[in-house]
Amino acid sequence: MTLRAIASATIIAVLFLSGCAKQPLPQEKAAAVSLVPVTFPQWQQSLAGYRGQFVVVDFWATWCAPCIERFPHIVQLHEKYGRQGIRFVSMDLDDRSDPQALDRAREFLITHNAAFDNYRMDEVVPDAFEKLDLLGIPAVFIYDRQGKLRYRLTGDNPNKQYTNQDVDKAIEQILQDKSEL
Asked: How many other CB atoms are found less than 10 A from the CB of residue 94?
């Protein structure tokens, strides 16, 4: 075998093993991401179905610039902690009567590879906020395995906005709480 043939074979092997052939196709990425419309009572049932798991819920909308900025961190946390028994869920609070908002939300989730449970609140926006007891978004709620709300991280208080580090600390705390494990 010539030196040129060995070099060519090596380059092909390196490219193949480095994952060039493993990149998901856009259709595969889209298939892994869904956006399920739910009414508030359906959301409560879905949330109850997560009992037995720690659950991190991110409330967001495409019109909310801080939501869009913070969402990739939720995806990173899902990748980091998903195998440690923490369930990640997103709740889109875009206007249900705006079909373009639905398209933007789906595209956003696909772009960020949000391959976890994604819901869209199928309620009038002000009613949804009231039922969820939210003054604004972004917001992150963290539930323990019994379904009890352990952390409510919001921007409701303009003098105390939560940060990504607050979410990280809350997750670390529930993982360390031996009474929960």
From this structure: 22
- pLDDT at residue 23, rounded to an integer: 43
pTM, whole model, 2 decimals?
0.81
The span from the CA of 179 to the CA of 181, in Å, is 6
Integer Cα distance of 100 and 117 in angstroms? 21
For the chain, the structural domain boundaries read 24-176
Could you report the per-residue pLDDT of 110-166, keeping only the tens digit for each?
999 999 999 999 999 999 999 999 999 999 999 999 999 999 999 888 888 899 999
For residue 64, the number of C-alpha atoms closer than 13 Å in the C-beta half-sphere is: 20
Asked if residue 96 lies in contact with residue 126, where contact means CB atoms within 8 angstroms, the answer is: no
Fold of 24-176: Glutaredoxin (3.40.30)
On average, the pLDDT of the chain sits at 84
Asked whether the bond before 72 is cis by omega within 30 degrees of 0, the reply is no
